[in-house]
Amino acid sequence: xxxxxxxxxxxxxxxxxxxxxxxxxxxxxxxxxxxxxxxxxxxxxxxxxxxxxxxxxxxxxxxxxxxxxxxxxxxxxxxxxxxxxxxxxxxxxxxxxxxxxxxxxxxxxxxxxxxxxxxxxxxxxxxxxxxxxxxxxxxxxxxxxxxxxxxxxxxxxxxxxxxxxxxxxxxxxxxxxxxxxxxxxxxxxxxxxxxxxxxxxxxx
Length: 204
Hints:
This protein is an alpha/beta fold and about 200 residues long.
């Protein structure tokens, strides 16, 4: 906790003064252009990876970057998606998986999750991804599952009414990314164009 308190002091002392004008604007304006859905893994930091300023990304983080398909009832992930799309009007949604994902490793290697029933239940949202990846001892199975899972979560996203409406209107684009922790690179699935050469969305 001491490190966090020291970090806040450093922010106030060294970072905030140079961005005071930005924070003054953000105090009354919230217009992110991108909904970024990533894993809860502490090694994945969306704002750092994309070099985004405060206010540019609306971030949802879940274990395994999972997005449950739309269903009746109260759901924090669904509520955040709906708010980002229907209220904030984001124009891009990114689902970002990553290398060495603990959630995907647990599934691919069939870890015993009996001691973590909530985790086991949550990871069932990746059952379809696991089924499409197949069985076997291929050492690259985790890597394949990470990619397949991103594609599956994009499909789940499209079942949410707010996203479906925005897709039909052509007002939102869905993108699947995989971040390589060791190399620091990002691959956009379904595209032969490196992410580094894709023009960034204009600032809000």
